[in-house]
Design brief:
Layout lengths: L2 H14 L1 H15 L1 H22 L8 H17 L1 H28 L23
Helix pairs in contact: 2-5, 3-4
Length: 132
């Protein structure tokens, strides 16, 4: 099997791992939950408004404090909504898993036994507090 075939097989294996399955389930739940979608849409609009004000040299910057508070309140609302919280957690865990796999590949290519960032174990991502 060529390296490219092995890479494709690894990619397929990653898509079938527990972390990916949790992510798919969380995305499906999110897509079915109108409240979750509205919360994320409202948050995106607030962030867009912030960006527009920051980019406009003529804009009144005094509203940024209030807008920042609105953004933080919306972030808290998103974190407190089970569906969006589960999606964020699943995305984080999947990202950590993929990063640990890439770290292991990188360390191996460099002739190391373990990744440079410590003793990450790709099989322990669910109990990990995140990659460093």
């Amino acid at each position: 099997m060529s390296i490219f075939e092995q890479a494709r097989a690894l990619g397929k294996d990653i898509l079938e791992c527990e972390e990916a399955q949790k992510l798919y389930a969380a995305r499906e739940s999110f897509e079915k939950d109108e409240t979750a979608k509205v919360l994320v849409d409202q948050y995106a609009k607030l962030k867009d408004k912030w960006t527009a004000i920051m980019e406009d040299k003529e804009a009144d910057k005094s509203i940024l404090t209030e807008l920042g508070e609105e953004i933080m309140a919306k972030e808290e609302e998103i974190k407190n909504h089970t569906i969006t919280f589960n999606l964020m957690q699943a995305e984080s865990q999947f990202g950590a898993f993929v990063n640990s796999v890439f770290s292991l590949i990188s360390a191996t290519v460099q002739g190391e036994e373990t990744p440079q960032n410590g003793s990450c174990d790709p099989s322990a991502c669910s109990s990990c507090s995140g990659c460093h």
